[in-house]
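Example 509.
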Amino acid sequence: HVLFTSIQDLKSSVYIESDMVKALKTYLSGEAVRIDKLKRFLNEVDSIRHSDRLDDSTEDYLDNPINAFYMIRRLHITWEGIIASTLTLENYKDFLSRIRTPIISKKEDFEGALDAILRLQRVYNLTIEDIVVGNIWGNIAYQPLCPQNCRVIGERVLQIGYFNQAQKWLQYVVNLNARNNDNDTYDMDLDESLAYSYFFNGNWVAALEKIQSILNEGDPLRFTRMNQLKHQALMNHQEGKEGIVMNRPWDDPVYHKLCRGQQEIQQPSSDSSSMYCKYTHGGSFVLLLQPYKMEVLRMDPLIALYYDVISDKEIGVIKTLAVPKMATSVTIGKDGIQTPSTDIRVSKGAWLKDEENVVVRRVDKRIEYLTGLSTLEPDHAEQLQVVNYGIGGQYDPHYDFKKDVGEDKNMVDYIHASQNRIATWMFYLSDVDAGGYTAFTAIKTIVKPIKNAAVFWWNLLPSGERDYRTLHAACPVLLGSKWVANKWIHNGGQEFRRPCNLAPDKGDT
Ligand SMILES: O=C(O)CCC(=O)C(=O)O
Ligand SMILES: [Fe+2]
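Predicted structure in complex with 2-oxoglutaric acid:
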């Protein structure tokens, strides 16, 4: 059928055309809304970045965990959300192709940031008010947490099972809402979360009251759930049950106290005070003319700190080699209540081989001279492990030695069964603005990271047995970031090579 063959057909085409005009108008106004939305978003981000002075003080900016949280939130939620929902698929692909590293929305990143903030609050005893304005020891965030983000935090902390902390956050948000609006935006989900936090805390009366007020709203979707909770709360109340207190290895109050710098035992009550702060050449000729300042922080078990034992230049080279190899360090599985996704070890690490670079070889040799122990890879020592901790980054209390076979499968994977980590040498490749101590929880001793220094300790007793007093942790980084490099030295054949100045526990110093 061709149009010009009949006037009738041509007439109908008038209507067809007017339909098309209408459709195009609708399409265009839709596009205009989209463009408008994108423009508004762009202006907002621009003004935030500008007011946060994100172009000229980026490094300092990310030192504050609340700023870092906002950055992650923007990248992984705001950007992804607006772009994915607003651009067409074709344009989205084009958009991604223009970015150096495409953004991938990772829920774990955002949750990890939330968990980090909550962990910092617990370990360092920070108030909600401090967290909200990002007041970390006087360093204030550029923008305070908005009520919506506080609420996200409250929900998250409930989800990971810190009920006392959850109750405080949720109550804070409820109060905030009450102050800000005139109650016509009653948030029942929030109330329900609060009810659960009362419940798990064992605040039966408060829980029952909250549950009843929710039931009074008459929402059929909550009816069964709230009635069951009410029933359970009544029973628990009658039986005098207590709430649930989360107690994971990294929740150890002693660990937290040490991280806050409260060290009960200051110095070892030792016989040989001459051991403190002396210059050492580790029993080797090579360094006779170039002694290093060593401080014995503790005698038995020995913890020794070497100052200025790695140069800024060497640190620069090691970081440069490590950065492209960095991968997120091991995380853990889930149990009933969600375990914070990244609490056991929050850091990124990379292994550097001796043969890879002359600087790596040089610092390894230095360890040999100073400890008298061979760092020959792979038999006598592992490769240098470079680790970077970011916001809230930590490593919960652990031993460096390999446990009995069967105790920990992961350890066996990378250490041959006949080898164990006789000693740990750890370089501090950075200072940390706040937090990030190395804390020996069993002997209540802390080491504050000092750039260019290194800490040394024996993991095994002279007899070769495991020394369980070496339980230690990396405290969460509160401000800034932390870099270390571990050298784990193995016992294979060198149990008897302990130099006298590093073997005070043998009594032959
Ligand atoms: O970073 C620290 O302070 C300790 C790290 C540590 O213990 C480890 O990596 O095994
Ligand atoms: Fe360790």
